[in-house]
User: Fold this.
Amino acid sequence: MGLRSVLIVGTGLIGTSIALALRERGLEVLLADRDPAVARLAAERGAGRAVEPSGAERADLAVLAVPPGAVPAALRDVQKLGAARYCTDAASVKAAPIAEAAALGCDMTAFVGGHPLGGRERSGPLAARPGLFAGRRWVLCPTPESAPAAVEAAEALALACGAVPVVMSGHEHDRAVALTSHTPHLVASALAARFAEAPEPVMALAGQGARDVTRIAAGAPELWSSIVWSNAGPIAEALDQVAGDLRRTARALRGTGPGEPVHDLLVRGVEGYARIPGGERTGRRGSVPVLVPDRPGELALLLHAVCVTGIGVEAVAFAPGRPVGMVELTVEQGSAGHLAGELRARGWAVPVGEA
Amino acid sequence: MGLRSVLIVGTGLIGTSIALALRERGLEVLLADRDPAVARLAAERGAGRAVEPSGAERADLAVLAVPPGAVPAALRDVQKLGAARYCTDAASVKAAPIAEAAALGCDMTAFVGGHPLGGRERSGPLAARPGLFAGRRWVLCPTPESAPAAVEAAEALALACGAVPVVMSGHEHDRAVALTSHTPHLVASALAARFAEAPEPVMALAGQGARDVTRIAAGAPELWSSIVWSNAGPIAEALDQVAGDLRRTARALRGTGPGEPVHDLLVRGVEGYARIPGGERTGRRGSVPVLVPDRPGELALLLHAVCVTGIGVEAVAFAPGRPVGMVELTVEQGSAGHLAGELRARGWAVPVGEA
Assistant:
């Protein structure tokens, strides 16, 4: 089916990002939020037209971009009003909302659960962007009741946002995201919680490693609370396994248990990290470190200098949090020495011995 | 004191990086490793001269860049040979090696423990670079026995590497790094260990968040095993606290304990993350997302296009692991729209509505 009009229910980061992507493709987008001011804000960003949902303006598809716990009631309300022909959602938990919606008496033939992977630390319509889901996976969880046309509508939505649709059951989805998203969040929170109590001189020694491990713990507690409670079972199981490994390791380190778990855990960690898709590149690369004063404008000057050399840079990485900024330029291995020389000749601080 | 000659014992990543920094400042550097081929490799990189340590060539300072457990014996050996006037080390654990060296009968007046913060995932002399410690903290742990001239020598070493010396006791240091470095590593390992066992379709949903939380778990198990065992007590305590939080959270999610710990943990996580120094910037910034084919050379073309606009870019971020690459350019807020327009006019895919 060709989607023509889409009703977005909930114009936060996710809903507004979907709306912006649909507007880029010329679709009609209706925007609704329990706080009408938020829907107007999204409309002002060009995401569509703020409306009070009703059967008078029936959309082809409604996207319930609300927290997982709010999906069943939102589905019932949209169906009661007749505000959309088919419905999907964007919540990061699937099995419980689907079961609850069925229990509320919703028409499950017209519903297909969806979960676009992606997101940002920031929230709200102002943080939204049309490319948020471009190239990302978008999980669809049809039930045996879901009508083929409803599945097609949800799939068309994912494709219109530039995402890659993936079909699995709600239970499969929930176990997968418990492991790859929700458990990592809580583990990061449990570690960061230790930093909350540490004295200042201790925290002064924390660097990029500590920052990376805990970055996702900065997410909004209210939203994450809702997500975590909606997927409680699979998360609790994974948390207990992680806690069990940590306790065995602590016992080994105290000498009150066998010593093997320490080395074993480190080895399994290396294996597990290697299984995360992406991030790796093929071909031999060299990198050129450059010391840059950590103030606005300096990177622009550096990138200009790189540009003038004509050498192709494939990645630009920062080591933030240092008194002196360090930028690492990744290039083809054969070009590293050349680039280092060119930058030095232009007065940039490039330590010798770049790898 | 002015350092003139430094003996590096252990020419891995850390030792060779220190050596390269010292060579940049024109100091004489002697290189020793239990594997002479590794010392020669470092010498070939321009890090100094490979030697068999002896009293015939007495250095001003020896840097024991060996794993924590190997520091006491290395100190004893260097002092027995008379190969250096003063000694320091670069191990990431301080109290146990200091106590053990004293027990071995080492001359503790001539020793000051040191720990340069920093490092990389890669190891070995080929991964070394002179700027590895530039702008980073370098902890010095003198004991009451340490001679002032020994402390000055260790401080001169840190400064010659461009680092910022910080003085604290060995026990203070060990508790601090247990919390900010060793515990994060094991927590990341415990999470990544779960990924090692997960089915393929589950891991396909893992993204940047999962990658960030577990990145440090990729470190070499042998080295980390040595580090962790040398600082066992403080780490075991922190691991138990993290495991306790995870277990309480799991009980809450199962409904077999009070529910508050879930929200409480998320809130404490946000607070703790905010206490990590660095990473934040002042001033209002805008960002421009650009879709880029994920293949070599494309980023170079984009950076060239940015360069031609004359707009100063302050950060370049990637979202790796997507089928379509997404580059986020950070600029002054007022320039975001202009840059987006300029890039679009040059044919780049810049989604509308950039925030």
